[in-house]
Design goal:
The protein contains 3 helices and 5 strands. The protein has 122 residues and is an alpha+beta fold. The longest helix has 27 residues, at 68-94. It is elongated, with a radius of gyration of 28 Å.
Length: 122
């Protein structure tokens, strides 16, 4: 079993499927499972690489071998996920909740004065 790319898409707009397939089958032939998609010309909100890494790990543990290109795409996807996780954890550390004045900093006289002021209506 090999993990490799299957070519799809229209002329000048290639898309590829990352599949687990028997090594004796043709490149675009029968496959066992679709493991992900690769869009080399991704635009806008479309993701360039979308791979189910859990399933890739399963097939590798079972003994599947990756082609050179498929292996490099899997590494790239792993790096993207780890960098996203680092960025997310850093943003959570930098986020601070809404700041409220602490009760200790407000004197009781100040709150009484605010309540005693008459409201002005126009």
């Amino acid at each position: 079993v090999r993990i490799r790319l299957q070519q799809h898409g229209a002329k000048h707009t290639p898309t590829y499927r990352l599949v687990a397939a028997e090594s004796t089958k043709p490149r675009d032939g029968r496959f066992i499972e679709i493991l992900g998609l690769y869009h080399p010309k991704a635009r806008g909100a479309q993701k360039e690489i979308d791979i189910k890494l859990e399933r890739v790990d399963y097939w590798i543990n079972v003994g599947a071998q990756t082609t050179d290109t498929a292996g490099s795409l899997i590494k790239k996807a792993r790096r993207a996920i780890s960098s996203d996780a680092q960025t997310e954890s850093e943003s959570q550390k930098n986020k601070k909740g809404p700041t409220e004045p602490s009760v200790e900093n407000v004197s009781p006289e100040a709150t009484l004065e605010e309540k005693a002021k008459p409201s002005v209506e126009n």
